[in-house]
């Protein structure tokens, strides 16, 4: 189909608008809708027959089956359906050429020529890979986070894509859960701000802009609370926990205008999220007045049969549609059964049309009706992907995401003219793991390794030794192929490399020990009961430590890990997550002091996996911890606290907090109090600090957390400089979802805490009258 022909058809559709807008008033109930788009949507809807309407609610994977169980539908069948205009969207078709080919099937063959929307999991970059979302969240730098999403969108749009299945805004507090790497960590407030920043980054101010794509807040809801950290597992969450802990980042994404939501695989207290009417219809669409569409997760409509919630696919389709799931990803349930269900009056035409309307709306917003090939431009594809400029931002994001956990004797930063360094470990010269899981089109082995970053930084007289020491995993598939389908096997036998590693450690002034996790130890389906150093890595650590105490652990991790032993004996620890394309350069910037680390943990690091799920914003029990008595809420064989708490992170300088004060100690529920604190850089170099505000509601209508993050400011201070940081304490800060099932402030006493991490004790009491 030529561009002019497609424009002709679009014009036809638009002309019909003016004769067919009788329903538009109904859909205008929501004031933030664009009237013109609503008229167009109604106009198109009026032209559609039932099969075409249902077709819009169908999404196929048309690439290789990347994420879920292999699809049962043949490629030819999918192509035939597209030609008939019976497919609303496809996922996993990437590149201008492939998108154009697929779009042509619809535009050149179908009756109404309604363009398809092309989706892909662009989770932390398309080809320029940024830190994993959890890692990047450690930057607490919303501007940078938004920027990386903007670039991810630009590269995706240049590849023909219109829609990413990101951000994942699931609050996740369990280190065992592999998907913890995809979100913003354990805190709903931080997660809300980061989620909204990512939505703004992907979508910009205008979805029809050629550089933006639709975002998707997922997985709605409760997926991050999977019991025992086991992926896809059930969640048992009470109503108040749901509203106060899980829903806020979703609400923030909706408020930021996210175009789509994805529901989730789990059941919540017995009701699969995909069939959850209260969540999808009552809360998201009704109470929040959100106008986008909800896509199911991969096959999650059909999976309601495995849950034992639907007896067959037909009933699953009925439940999902009635519950408000608008688009069926790879279950083939809607296409097979919606017409029949309508006939039997088990679903209503108005619900079905509401779904179609929501889907068409996003297509109009993207400008696909104006030009279905608008994102298909080879020139743009050539010039807008993996550019120098994008890589520079990847480096900036990488260094800002690093968290310094320990720096005994100021082992860091290292002088660039140090005589010798040994870079040791399975991740020392690893160019692939830094890309992390969900790396979209990130090219196998394309990241800058730690060794490369170090070599590029040191003086020409510095001797840099390298030894892998141990091979962590035994490759079970050809490197670079789709590892998703295969479990990893860990090497517990071949110790030959340890000797060589010890030999170079002996010769070096300082050792950078790069151990931790492989890219594919976290991500979907990658839950683990062991979150320590697997394979022979502990042996390597102990062997090196015997011959050289000057060790900096450069941790490779998708999740919080148990690093207790390393933390006990090693002087230096850097959490370097999986930092993306520019990983090695970003780490070297920090190791050698070109960048003063400023990251803070977005998740607690435990002492032991047995503490999981571990999170700072716990409620008080009736038996708060007492170290001298056994019948209190704690453990007999471990401290209860985190090894490194939420919000923790050191700098090459130090900060002091002083002069915490409020302008008044009492306010009414609609009032305001200003809290201020003086923060001073007490060290010798400039540095950034994330000043954090926590609150505690002392007595409330439901039991409240002992601390909750409610504000933060990242400030730069020169050596010796002091800044006063102020926070406004008002309804926004103090409200919660109360026993009245409303967000409101309850009168009473509150503690306000300020400090450098969630363990801070610096506080001020206020009273709300
Ligand atoms: C995941 C989603 C993802 C989808 C499509 C599912 O298995 O849970 O997060 O977006 O696949 O790839």
UniProtKB/TrEMBL annotation:
It is an enzyme of class 3 (hydrolase). The keyword Glycoprotein does not apply. It holds the Pfam family Fn3-like. Residues 689-758 form the Fibronectin type III-like domain. SUPFAM superfamilies: (Trans)glycosidases, Beta-D-glucan exohydrolase, C-terminal domain. Keywords: Glycosidase, Hydrolase, Signal. Its EC number is 3.2.1.21. The keyword Hydrolase applies. PANTHER family: LYSOSOMAL BETA GLUCOSIDASE, PERIPLASMIC BETA-GLUCOSIDASE-RELATED. Belongs to the glycosyl hydrolase 3 family. This is beta-glucosidase.
């Amino acid at each position: 189909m030529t561009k002019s022909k497609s424009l002709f058809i679009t014009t036809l559709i638009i002309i019909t608008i003016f004769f067919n807008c009788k329903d538009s008033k109904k859909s205008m109930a929501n004031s933030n809708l664009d009237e013109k788009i609503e008229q167009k949507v109604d106009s198109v809807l009026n032209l559609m027959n039932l099969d075409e309407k249902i077709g819009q609610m169908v999404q196929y994977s048309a690439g290789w089956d990347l994420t879920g169980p292999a699809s049962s539908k043949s490629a030819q069948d999918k192509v035939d359906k597209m030609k008939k205009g019976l497919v609303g969207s496809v996922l996993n078709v990437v590149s201008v050429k492939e998108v154009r080919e697929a779009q042509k099937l619809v535009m050149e063959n179908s009756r109404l020529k309604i363009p398809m929307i092309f989706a892909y999991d662009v989770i932390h970059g398309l080809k320029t890979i940024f830190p994993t979302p959890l890692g990047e969240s450690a930057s607490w730098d919303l501007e940078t986070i938004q920027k990386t999403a903007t670039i991810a969108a630009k590269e995706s749009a240049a590849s023909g894509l219109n829609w990413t299945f990101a951000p994942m805004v699931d609050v996740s507090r369990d280190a065992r859960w592999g998907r913890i790497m995809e979100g913003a960590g354990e805190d709903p407030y931080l997660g809300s701000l980061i989620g909204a920043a990512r939505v703004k980054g992907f979508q910009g101010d205008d979805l029809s802009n050629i550089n933006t794509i639709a975002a998707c807040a997922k997985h709605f809801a409760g997926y991050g609370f999977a019991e025992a950290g086991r992926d896809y597992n059930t969640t048992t969450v009470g109503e108040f926990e749901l509203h106060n802990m899980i829903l806020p980042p979703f609400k923030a994404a909706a408020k930021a205008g996210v175009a789509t939501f994805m529901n989730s695989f789990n059941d919540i207290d017995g009701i699969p999220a995909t069939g959850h009417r209260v969540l999808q219809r009552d809360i998201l669409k009704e109470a929040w007045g959100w106008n986008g569409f909800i896509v199911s997760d991969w096959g999650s409509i059909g999976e309601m049969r495995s849950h034992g919630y639907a007896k067959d696919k037909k009933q699953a389709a009925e439940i999902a549609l009635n519950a408000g799931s608008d688009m069926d990803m790879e279950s083939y349930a809607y296409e097979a059964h919606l017409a029949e269900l309508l006939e039997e009056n088990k679903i209503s035409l108005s619900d079905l049309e509401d779904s179609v309307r929501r889907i068409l709306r996003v297509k109009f917003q993207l400008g696909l009706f104006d030009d279905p090939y608008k994102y298909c431009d080879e020139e743009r594809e050539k010039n807008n992907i993996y550019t120098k400029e994008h890589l520079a931002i990847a480096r900036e994001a990488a260094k800002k995401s690093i968290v310094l956990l320990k720096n005994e004797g100021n082992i860091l930063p290292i002088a660039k003219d140090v005589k010798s360094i040994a870079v040791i470990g399975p991740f020392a010269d690893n160019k692939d793991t830094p890309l992390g899981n969900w790396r979209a089109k990130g090219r196998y082995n394309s990241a800058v390794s730690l060794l490369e970053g170090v070599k590029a930084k040191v003086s020409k007289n510095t001797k840099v030794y390298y030894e892998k020491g141990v091979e962590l995993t035994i490759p079970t598939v050809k490197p670079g192929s789709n590892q998703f389908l295969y479990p990893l096997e860990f090497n517990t036998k071949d110790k030959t490399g340890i000797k060589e590693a010890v030999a170079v450690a002996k010769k070096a002034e300082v050792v950078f020990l790069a151990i931790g996790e492989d890219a594919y130890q976290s991500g979907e389906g990658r839950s683990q009961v062991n979150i320590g150093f697997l394979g022979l890595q502990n042996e390597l650590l102990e062997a090196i430590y015997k011959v050289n105490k000057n060790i900096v652990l450069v941790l490779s991790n998708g999740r919080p890990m148990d690093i207790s032993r390393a933390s006990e004996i090693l002087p230096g620890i850097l959490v370097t997550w999986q930092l993306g394309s520019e990983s090695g350069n970003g780490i070297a910037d920090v190791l050698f002091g070109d960048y003063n680390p400023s990251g803070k943990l977005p998740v607690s690091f435990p002492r032991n996996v047995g503490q999981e799920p571990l999170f700072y914003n716990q409620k008080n029990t009736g038996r708060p911890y007492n170290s001298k008595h056994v019948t209190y809420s704690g453990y007999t064989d471990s401290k209860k606290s985190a090894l490194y708490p939420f919000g923790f992170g050191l700098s090459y300088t130090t900060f002091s907090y002083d002069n915490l004060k409020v302008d008044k100690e009492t306010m009414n529920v609609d009032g305001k109090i200003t809290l201020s604190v003086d923060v001073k850089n007490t060290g010798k170099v400039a540095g950034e600090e994330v000043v954090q505000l926590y609150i505690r509601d002392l007595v409330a209508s439901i039991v409240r957390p002992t601390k909750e993050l409610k504000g933060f400011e990242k400030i730069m201070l020169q050596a010796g400089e002091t800044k006063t940081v102020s926070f406004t304490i008002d309804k926004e800060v103090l409200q919660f979802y109360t026993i009245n099932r409303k967000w409101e402030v309850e009168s009473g006493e509150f503690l306000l805490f300020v400090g450098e991490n969630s363990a801070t004790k610096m506080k001020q009491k206020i009273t709300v009258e």
